[in-house]
Amino acid sequence: MAEIVLTVNNKEGLHARPAKDFINKVREFKSKVTIQNLSRPESKEVAVTPVGLLNIAARQGHAIRVRAEGADEAEVLAALKQLVDNNFGERDQA
């Protein structure tokens, strides 16, 4: 099992399109992936599903722990880190 802690910088948090992008990225891999919002003490570790992501209520600035277990766990975590670090492809609007 491997894990990383990421900070959600996207202004929408982990809702709507960012959540869909996160789930779609996880589906590209075989490892089991779970997530927990470390910024909310009551948050439980949940599977990466639409309902799971809504339940953790990750907002901008929140720290999330992502765990992966499986043959490609390092790869899925690297891909998710890149997705979050790039703000889910959000473009600055001038």
Which regions have little confidence, pLDDT < 50, spanning 5+ residues? none
In what range is the share of β-strand residues?
15-25%
- Into which percent range does the helicity of residues fall? 25-40%
Listing every helix as H and every strand as E from the N terminus to the C terminus, the arrangement reads EHEEHEH
Broad shape = globular
Give the strand line-up of the largest sheet.
Answer: 1-4-2-3
Mean pLDDT, to the nearest integer, reads 93
Rg estimate, integer Å: 12 Å
Tell me the total number of β-strands: 4
**SSE class:** alpha+beta
How would you concisely characterize the structure shown here?
With 94 residues, the chain is α+β, with helices and mostly antiparallel strands. It has helices at 16-27, 50-56, 73-85, and strands at residues 2-7, 32-37, 46-47, 63-69.
